[in-house]
Batch of 2 targets.
Target 1
Amino acid sequence: MERNIALIALFAALIAALGIIPAVMLPFGVPITAQSLGVMLCGTVLGARRGTLAVLLFMLLVCLGLPLLSGGKGGLGVIVGPTGGFFLAFPLAALVAGLITERWRAAPLALSAGVAAATGGVVLYIFGIIGMALVLDKTVAQATLLVTAFIPGDAIKAVIAGLATSALYRARPRAVLSRA
Amino acid sequence: MAQPLALSNVSLALEGRAILHGITLNGDQRRIGIVGRNGSGKSTLARVIAGLQAPDEGEVRLFGVDVAKDRKAAIRTVGILFQNPDHQIIFPTVDEEIAFGLTQLGQSKSEAAAGVRAILEEFGKAHWAGAAVHPLSQGQKQLLCLMAILAMRPRLIVLDEPLAGLDIPTRMQLMRYLDGVNAHLLHISHDPATLAGYDRVIWVAEGRIAGDGAARDVLAEFAADMERLGGMDDISDLAG
Amino acid sequence: MISLTSPVETWAHGWRAGAKLGALCIATMGLFALDSVAGQGAAFAVMLALYAAPGAVFFRSGIVRLRILWPFLLVILLWHLVTATPAQGAVIALRLVTAVGLANLVTMTTRLSDMIGVVRWLAAPLRRIGIQTRALELGIALVIRFTPMLAAKGAALSRAWRARSPRRPGWRIVLPFTLIAIDDAEHVAEALKARGGV
C-alpha cells in the first residue's frame, strides 16, 4: 500500500518534472517537452491501474492551480483551451498504454511498451483533435491538419518510451509493475 | 522490564545476497553506537531494528515489542532518522510533516496541531510553523526529521548516519540536540569521533558482529583496522 | 511549491471556492451556447472588467497568462480571413479568450488550500460509503513535496551531462531521471512505513 501510493505520487511528480526541465532534444533536432512521454511511462511502467491513477493525480493538481504543465501552465483554463482535449485524454492514454504492456507479454518489452505508447498516443490525438475542433469550431479534418506538425515528435517519443521501459525493467525489475 | 534492545539470531538476504548472518544482540544502555564500513550491513541492520525490514530468520524485540510484526506498537517504540532527510520528509510544509506522525498515533487534528506547536517551541523553532520544506538547508531538514520523530515520543531512536555530509558547525549543533534526547539512541556511523562518548559500541563487519564493548576499546580497534585497510586496495574487489 | 494563485488579494479570494467553480461551469456552458458577435463581445468586456477591477498588477499578470493562446488566435484570424467569414471567426476567437480567461480568473483568486478543501468536500460521499480518501490527500501532499525536488535532481542530471558532453542532454536522460523517481518512491514508502503506514 505505502509503495503503491509512493510510486503513483512520484510518477505524477515525474510527469510534472519532465515538463519543467528544459525541452529535451530528440534525434533530428526536434525540440519537444517530455511531458506526454511521462504520461506514457506511467502506463508502460506502472501498468494500467496505477498508471492511470498517477496521471489523474497529476491532472488534479494542475486543475487545483499548480503550474505543472510544460511552460509553467496550469489552472482550470487548460481544460477549456484549444489543447484541452489532449489534457483530458491523458488518463485514457495511460490506461491504454498500460493495458497493452500488461497483456502483450509474448513480445520483448521494448516492442510491446513501444507499441503501447504509440497506441496511447493515437488515443491522445483522437481526443485532442476532437477537443480542438470543438473549441476552434472547425471540422475534425481541419483540426487534424493543425496538429500534423507534432506527429513525428510523438512517434519518436513512443519509441523512447518503449526503450526506456525495457531499460528500466533491467535496472529495477521490481518497480516495473506492468510486468510484475 | 523487557530488554530495550533484543536481537536473537537475525539473518537476512536481499536479492539473493546474504547481508546479515545470525546477529544476536542485547542491550539496555541509553547510548549505543554501531560502527562499520560502507556495505558492512549496518544500514540494513538499522532498518531491521526499526522494523522496516522483517528478518528472514530470528526476531527483533524492542522493549518487548516485535517491531516487524506489530507495526502499531512499533511506531510508539522506535523511530528512525535516515541519512538523507529528503528520503524521510513526506510533506511539503513543516507542520504537516510533524503532524503526520501524531495523527498516525491516533491523535485528533487539534491534538496533533498542539503537539506540533509544543515540539517546535521545545526546540525554540516556533517561527518554523507553516514554513515550506523545499528551501530548508540540509541541516534544517535533518532537524525537522528529528523533531518529527521526537514528537511521537518513541522509546528508542535509530540514527542511520544522519550527520554524514553536514558541515562541522551544523554537525555539532545537531549532536547537541541529539545528546539532549531522552530516548535511547542507537547511532550508526562510520566515523569513530561521533561515537566517542557513547556507553557501548558495536562493530559490524560483513554482516557479523566483529567487536562489542566500551566505546574507547572498540573504537580504537576499529580505527586501527581501518588504518590497516586504508593501506590496501580492496576498492578493486567487486561484490558477488 | 508556488501555485498560480495571485498574490494580489482580491475580494474574490474570500468567496467560497465551490461557488466560484459552479459559476465558472455555468458561464462556460453559456459561452459555448452563445453565437452572436455582440454577445461574445459583451462577455469578453465583462471578463476584461473583472481582470481590471483589482488593479493594474492583477490585470497585467492575468493578460500575460492569456498570451499562450496567440498561435491559435493567429490560425483563426488567417483561416476566417481566407474563407471570408469574419463574424464566425470573431465569435470563436472571443469565446476562446473569454472561456480561458474566466477559468484562469478562478484559479488566480482561489488559494490552493481552498481548492483542496473542495476536493475533500467532493470526496466526502466516498468516505461515507466507506472508501478511504486518505490516500488521495497523501498523494496530493507527496506530489507538491516531490515535484520541486525531482525538478532539481533533473537539473543536476543535465548539469552532470553537460560537464562531460558538448551537446545538450538527449533523450537518454529520461532513463536515469525515471530511475531517480522510482528510487525516491522506494524511500518514501519506507518513510511512510516507519511512521505507521497508510
Target 2
Amino acid sequence: MKRVPMGGNRRIGIVIAVACIGAAVLAGLHVAHQDSAYPSTDSATIDAELVHVASIVGGRLVTLPVHENQHVHQGDLLYRIDPEPYALTVRQAEANLALATAELNNQRRLLAVRTAQAATARDQVTRAQANRDLADRTVTRLEPLAGQSFIPWQQYDQARVTRNNAEISLAQAHQQSAAADIAIGDLASATAAQAASQAALDRARYELRQTIVTAPADGFVTSLRVKAGEVLAPSQVLFTLIADDAWYAVANLREITLPAVHPGDCATVYSMIDRRTPLQGRVESIGWGVLSADSAGLARSLPLVPRQMDWVHVAQRFPVRVRVRAADPTLLRMGATATVEIRHGPACP
Amino acid sequence: MRQKSFCFFFFRKRRSLLPLVALDGCALHGAPSFPIAGAYFPAWMLCALLGVAVAVGLRAAFLMAGLDALLSFRLFTYVALGTLAALALWALAFGP
C-alpha cells in the first residue's frame, strides 16, 4: 500500500528535479551565449588626450594667468617666459643681417670696379693687337727694301725687334685680360652670408615668439604646482592639459569576446561618478597590441621562455577604445572607473 | 523601460526578501556595478546572492507548504532553482 504512492512521489520528484536541472542548464547556456555575444566590462577607464605643455625655449616664467583645474580654450594665453634675452638675440641678429647686407652692397661695388678693369684689359688687348699688326706690316714692307740695300740693315733689324716686342705685349695683354675676367667673380659669397644672417634672424624671432605659450586645444589645466618666477629649462613640461574635445572609455575586453566587437558598434558607458546616467558611446577601435609577459625580453637578447606547466591560461584582454558622445562634463574625468556594455544597455536601443 | 518595470516588480513583490539591493532607491537602474563601502561589486555577485536566497527561501516555503516531501534529489533541485533565479535576474536586469 505504501510503495505505490512513494513510487509515484519519487517519479514526480525525479521529473521535477530533471526539469529544474535541465532548465537551469539551458538558461546557463543562454546567458553564457548572451554574455559573449554582448560583451561588457566593469573595469573600464575614462580617458582623454593629453598635451604636456612646454615651451621649446627656457627662461624665467614671468606671467602665469592660468591656475590648477581651470578650463582654457584653444589659443588662450597659458604662460609667458621672460622675452628679454630673446629680444636681445633678435636685435643682435638684425644687426648681423644689416652687416651682411652692407657687405653685399660693398661687394657689388667692387664687382663693378672689377668688371670695368676687365673691360680695360680687353681694350689693352685690342691696342696691343693693333701695335703688333703695325709692326708686322712694317717688317713686311722693309724686308725687300733691306734685301736690295735701299735702307740700312739696322733699320730693318729695329723693325723686327719692334715686332717681337709687340708680340710679347700682345701675349701679356691677353694674359692680363684673362686674369681680369677671372677676377670679376660674383656675389655668391656675400649673398650666402646675407641669407645665413636672415635665417639666424628668423630663428631668433621664432624663439622670441615661443616665449608666449598658448593653449593648443580646449581643455583643463592639471598638475600645475608652480607660480610665476620659476625658471624653466627648454622643453620643460610645466603642466598637463587634458583636452576635453573628445572623451573616451578604454574597456579592457577579453580576446574571446573581441569577434563580437566592431568599430562603430554602439556602447553604453557608465561613469561611476554617477552610475545612474548612461552615456552613449561608439566603439572607435580595438587595440592592436599589448605587452605580454611571455614575449617580454630585450630585443637584442635571446627569447625569454619561462619554464612552466600551466594548464589554465587566463584570457588576454585588449583595450577597446569607445568614444563617448558629448555628455555632462562633470561625469567625465580622466581615470574615472567606468562600466562599458557593447551593443546593449539603455543608450543603445 | 524594461529595467524600470523590472525594478517596480522587484520592489513591490520581494522587498522583504532582498534588503541588500534596496541600498539607494532602485539600485538596479544604472551601471551593473554596485558601490558598497567604496568598492564596486559586480552584478553577477548580486545575482549569485539572489540565487542563494531563492534556494533557501524556496526550501523553507516548500517545507511549510508540504511540497518538499514530493521532491527527490533535493540538493540538486534547490540548487537548480536558485541558479534559475540568478540567471533570470541577470537576463532581465543586466543582460542585453
